[in-house]
Amino acid sequence: MSGMNVLGIETSCDETSAAVYAARPDGAGDLKSNVVASQVDLHARFGGVVPELSARAHVERLPAIVAEALSRAGCAFCDVDAVAVTSRPGLLSALLAGVSYARGLAIALDRPVYAVDHVKAHVAAAFLPASPETPEFQPLAPGDLPALAMVASGGHTVLLKMNGPTAFDVLGTTRDDAVGEAFDKVGHLLGLPFPGGPEIERAAAGGDPDAFSFPIGVIRGHPLDFSFSGLKTAVLYAMAKLPARARRRRVADLAASFQKAAIAALVRRAVAAGRETQIRAFVLCGGVAANHALRAAMSAALATEGARLTVPPVRYCGDTAAQVARFAAFQIAEGAPPADPGLDACATSELFALQ
To answer: N or C: which end of the chain has fewer CB within 10 A?
Structure first.
């Protein structure tokens, strides 16, 4: 395989994204562009993502987003060597918008299309090259594997053993809410704007993390699994015990105490997994990995274990096509076949079939 321009497309939830990754034969390469159009303003008044509105926005925006990604990369459609698209998991109608566009484009260009699992793509963000905008980032290299990876996002909380860039074993997953979902729901309880994750982080900066004692969910017999529904309910009950005026005054304390418990749940599993597997390379990724308190706590805890932590730059923690194209470059380098022409979307990750 000579150098290839891989066009990545991401529409799994409420970000419309396209990127161009110039891949070398070993899968390494350069990110030539990454364009993301957020739908936060579209969904904010509903307090969450409305699937059909998201899908409609993807259909409307995707052609312009792809054109912009190609333009920034200095490419034309004829320069695209392969198309990669998130085909699972996510909101089904949103996924279909991206999959349908990618299939049609691949047929029109007579190019292969590669199906990418959204959860695996988050991990691939750790392999993206450093750039002048992110000079402090030290990407993971295939030679660093095996590694442990935690995907912490609005839709998923998964602990993985990464045997190769595209090969994973599931060590633990959430039994109820994803951690990002818990952040959003608690943010809603506290009267904070959507999405709740960044708002809770901002509010928590001015609060006392020890003001309230919230539980850290434990699954008996499954120490690497997660549970966040009890934490969310504990916040609800704590608020119910406060007079309405006091609730407004204690938002920062509630946010800080919730954030402390949620972070502790993640960090404890990371440390436990490292001790169990004796693996000293760890990746933290997904939208919640943008939380600075989590990044600091995870870094400190793993440093005491002698482990190296890799966290993608904040701009690549969310849903972006850059990570989709990066994962597809590994697929191509490994000789994986492209998807069938009848590629369809699926709401669940193939990772959970491995359990």
So the answer is: C
